[in-house]
Write a structure and sequence with these properties.
By secondary structure, this protein is of the alpha/beta class. It has helices at 2-9, 14-35, 53-75, 85-102, 111-118, 124-143, 151-172, 180-196, 199-210, 216-233, 239-245, 254-260, 281-288, 311-325, 357-367, 391-412; strands at 272-276, 278-279, 294-298, 306-310, 336-337, 345-352, 371-376, 384-390.
């Protein structure tokens, strides 16, 4: 839940928090039913021992922060993007194969390597390969535009770095140093927090892995140091934010995030009447008796777009028409062509009642339409128009919400 809020949603609001909790709960239930509730890693006994380990933990956090910054810099590089796709895939595949020939542990997600690092079962040369090669190959693969996950490789590299740091600490201070498995866990959390710039998610992952609060003190220290080092010394934002800025990941921008929280019915204009193109003056007056805002003009051909006309335009035309008659009786066969009277007519396309404002905004942008009519019902013959939503209505809603939030912040301060 915390990972989704901090990395994916990048916000903490009740509206987005509740669905994430529900989705996380259902996902955990399905996973336990299908695969059981056995833990992914067997964690050694957590005992930091002496507080003399804390300065060494700070040093490890600095190293991991620099590694995370290097990873982000390489992964957002645009140089490989200029090469053909087949050549990029070839470079990544050959590089991975050559390194895997000597160190097969770098292949796959690497959870088996993490488990071995936590239990001190890997040699120093293997840990070095996981620390450097795993992180480097993953960064180059991402830079080449190959769709892969980064969470697993990041955890592997962090565990290897932490385990190496624990071994070095045990060599320097054999009487005071904690078990390398503890350093491996701290390294996992630090690397995850520094790469994603998600310290809370990293700490929650550390707590869930160990099931003990005793690890939180060194965990908070190493995660904070790694995150600050990655952000301040290397000038890197989180991996996903950097990917957005460099066009590598279609993450929502703040405008789309705000619009995706609101459904179309909250903004649509419901005061409308449906009418044919040709109507008599009496029919026009009856249409205006309900004080509609829009007239939805139905076309004879389904290939032609549905049009919307402001009801005020028809009312103005009727007023001018009556003044022009100057008390004379209008012709009995007189008809009003709603496509000919002065006024702006908006071409419209349908959108579902369950859609969000972000979907409506994108549809208006892509099709260059003036408005959308909101349809309710699933069967084509049973669908009815519930309202109209225009680009201006979406913009007014966004500016109104933004102004309210600004006023609230000024009031609180």
């Amino acid at each position: 839940v915390i990972f989704a809020m901090e990395v994916v949603m990048m916000e903490y609001t009740l509206m987005s928090f509740m669905p994430v909790i529900l989705a996380s709960t259902m996902g955990a239930l399905v996973a336990q039913v299908m695969y059981g509730n056995a833990p992914a890693f067997r964690i050694p006994e957590v005992a930091l021992g002496s507080l003399m380990n804390l300065p060494w933990i700070v040093v490890i956090g600095l190293v991991i922060g620099l590694m995370a910054g290097l990873f982000i810099h390489i992964s957002r590089s645009q140089r490989l993007q200029t090469l053909p796709l087949w050549l990029r895939l070839g470079v990544v595949g050959v590089g991975t194969g050559v390194l895997a020939w000597w160190f097969p542990e770098i292949q796959g997600i690497g959870y088996d390597s993490v488990a071995a690092a936590l239990n001190n079962q890997l040699a120093i040369n293997v840990l070095l390969a996981l620390m450097v090669a795993k992180l480097l190959i993953t960064a180059i693969t991402v830079a080449g535009g190959v769709p892969i996950g980064i969470i697993g490789p990041v955890l592997v590299a962090g565990a290897a770095t932490g385990a190496l740091g624990g071994m070095l600490g045990g060599w320097l201070w054999p009487e005071k140093a904690a078990d390398p498995g503890i350093y491996a866990m701290l390294g996992m959390a630090a690397m995850m927090g520094a790469v994603l710039q998600a310290p809370l998610a990293a700490l929650m992952a550390l707590l869930e892995l160990t099931h003990t609060p005793n690890i939180m003190l060194p965990g908070m220290l190493v995660v904070v140091v790694a995150c600050l080092t990655s952000r301040q010394l290397t000038g890197c934002e989180g991996f996903f934010i950097s990917s957005v800025r460099y066009g590598l990941h279609p993450l929502q921008q703040p405008l789309m995030q705000a619009l995706s929280r609101v459904s179309v019915p909250a903004v649509m204009e419901r005061q409308l009447v449906r009418t044919e193109r040709m109507i008599t003056p009496d029919q026009a007056r009856r249409l205006l008796e309900t004080n509609p805002m829009w007239l939805v003009i139905e076309r004879s051909s389904e290939e032609k777009p549905v049009l919307a006309l402001k009801a005020a335009e028809l009312a103005r035309w009727l007023l001018e028409h009556d003044e022009a008659l100057d008390g004379e009786a209008p012709p009995e066969d007189e008809l009003i062509d709603l496509l000919e009277i002065p006024g702006q007519r908006l071409e419209m396309a349908p959108i579902g009642l369950q859609a969000t404002l972000s979907e409506a905004f994108l549809k208006l942008q892509d099709s260059a339409l003036g408005a959308l009519y909101v349809v309710h019902g699933y069967r084509p013959k049973q669908q009815r128009i519930s309202g109209i939503i225009t680009r201006g209505a979406i913009e007014r809603y966004y500016h109104y919400t933004d102004a309210r939030q600004t006023d609230a912040r000024e009031t609180d301060s």
